[in-house]
Amino acid sequence: MKITYKGFIRERIQRNPVTISPDATFFDAWNLIRQKGIRHLPVVDKKDRVVGIVTERDIRKAAPSSVSSLSVYELHYLLGMLKVSGFMTPKEKLITITPDTLVEEAVQLMHTNKIGCLPVLEEKKLYGIFTETDALDLLVDIFGLKQKGTRLTVALEDKPGSMLGILEFFKKYKVNVISFVSPSFMVEGNRVAAVRIKTEEYKDIVKDLEKAGYPVLSIGKWPSV
């Protein structure tokens, strides 16, 4: 069986996102963002090369203040003349990635730089975008939250073989593991693992884990049943 998935961003992004021209007007961008329910609007030239991006924040900054002395007619005229190129975030200030960027590297870039979107470029052309919504979708997948099951939060020693020891109990009870997530932080000298298992019959498993020296810190069900 051939598995093509490699964990690259190309497998998790929005292809063919809504885009806009740098020569479009403020109202063109504003209407697209409202009508499409999006927060990030890549700006591309005639060759599909990214020249910038328009965000909700850019729209708010470009819009006149509510205390402006200009009339409604004057405001509409000025905004109608304002080109996207005049208020977008230019390419020089963007952080971009390629389709072969690892998913976790993309998430770290967004977290470190406190940004909500990464344009994905291939040979300078727009390949897609990776947004904070995509990152949250990934988190939901990693934790297996779309599947009914039981979450066990288990403490384990930070040493080789500890995770295998936990998994052996699920094998013993012939229970499928939906997800197994162990963050890098330590709690009172121990690692912590959040394990979602595909069963609601967990009491005997918990007893065996604790007898073997794996304290079960909490038990939860999601979705609730």
Quickly describe the structure.
With 225 residues, the protein is an alpha+beta fold. Helix content is 31%, strand content 24%. The strands form three sheets. A four-stranded antiparallel beta sheet has the order 8-9-7-10, with helices on one face. Strands 1-6-5 form a three-stranded antiparallel beta sheet. Strands 2-3-4 form a three-stranded antiparallel beta sheet.
Your description of this structure?
The chain is an alpha+beta fold. It folds into 2 domains: 9-139, CBS-domain; 144-221, Alpha-Beta Plaits (2-Layer Sandwich), CATH 3.30.70. Helix content is 31%, strand content 24%. It has 7 helices and 10 strands. The strands form 3 sheets. A 4-stranded antiparallel sheet has the order 8-9-7-10, with helices on one face. A 3-stranded antiparallel sheet has the order 1-6-5. Strands 2-3-4 form a 3-stranded antiparallel sheet. β2 and β3 (50-55) form a beta hairpin. The radius of gyration is 24 Å and the shape is elongated. The chain starts with 13 loop residues before the first strand and ends with a strand. The model has no long low-confidence stretch (mean pLDDT 90).
